[in-house]
Specification:
By secondary structure, this protein is of the alpha/beta class. The chain contains 13 helices and twelve strands. It is 39% helix and 15% strand. The N and C termini lie far apart (46 Å). This is Luciferase.
Length: 390
Amino acid sequence: MNLDTRIPGPRSPADFADSPLARVLRQPMILGLFLPTQSGGWSASAAPRSTSWEFDYNAALALRAEELGFDLVFGLSEWVRAGGYGGKIRFREDSIDPFITVTALAALTRRLLLLSTIHILYGPWHPMHLARFAATADHISKGRFGINVVTGFSPAEPLMFGMRRQEHDLRYEMADEFMSITSRLWQSEHNFSHDGRFWCLENAFVRPKPRYGRPILVSATGSPAGFSYAARHSDLAFITSPAGANVARAIEALPAHTAKLKAQARTFGREIRTIINPMIVCRSTEAEATEYYEEIIRLADMGAAVGYANHFKSGDSKAWTNHVPRERILGGNVHLIGDPQQVADWLIALNKAGCDGMQISFYDFREDLEFFGKSVLPLLQQAGVRLPVN
């Protein structure tokens, strides 16, 4: 029996009223923390900070985020060569695996959604592997586990696996078949066989099944092919500003960008939520925040910043084309630099521009998360975009 990859898979976890995802989606603004599981975090700077890629540091961040009422944590995945992206800081040379990391966090946390990025087209991945591994993580986390499916835009990464990067839109066709098969494995109570364009299975079966139909599915995209994939498969779409990191330009460009994706999902009878990645530099006054930002820029490791910018130039990602190398010093997708009220106002404006969630990054994660929780989060609660968390 061949699998029709256009047949929808199991229901979204959002369709189950008691699922962790459904609970999170009741928030007017989803709030997430983008864990720094890679050395240097998001910033190519040598300015002093506590930020660390090590598990204990990230676990402490996750626990504190949960205490503050955050909804989710998120780990990226990338494969870098010796020296990372360069510079004296050897930017991102060290990186712990997000799948293992967030699964381990399931044993420590009780409420956070735990999202892991996975390059499904690299190396030995097969739909059978992902179906079983993700179902296991789903049970360990009691339905809180999710997969950020990425196809890999870098030409260097697949070479490490003895592969070459496939053409951009073809990768999304491959991802569509891969995840359609995986969803069928989560759904089917019988063996099934599939002789497809990219994958073959004979009498395949996986059990136990995920608790709420399937794990949470996420994708990170900005291209037409990526939007088409997300519209069919994803619960959450991790988007970038099509206008670069300047927040005013981002707020102007995002409504049309997010509306297009959401309208496309509705053609499949689905609802999708969008999440963006603000990098927040916040202090008690705007002057103090500006001074903090200027110190990060003054101590930039330009070798690392240029190396990271060249990494994006070498790939075929459509999402970061209007982001300039200087913006890679601080990193993140949209830069919010100001006092607590300014930062809160910008987050609310991004939310009104069609971004359902904020996947926040900081320069000094431990200290800046604490300041955000004390000074910005109460303003979001007062504005009604963050509801009390039980």
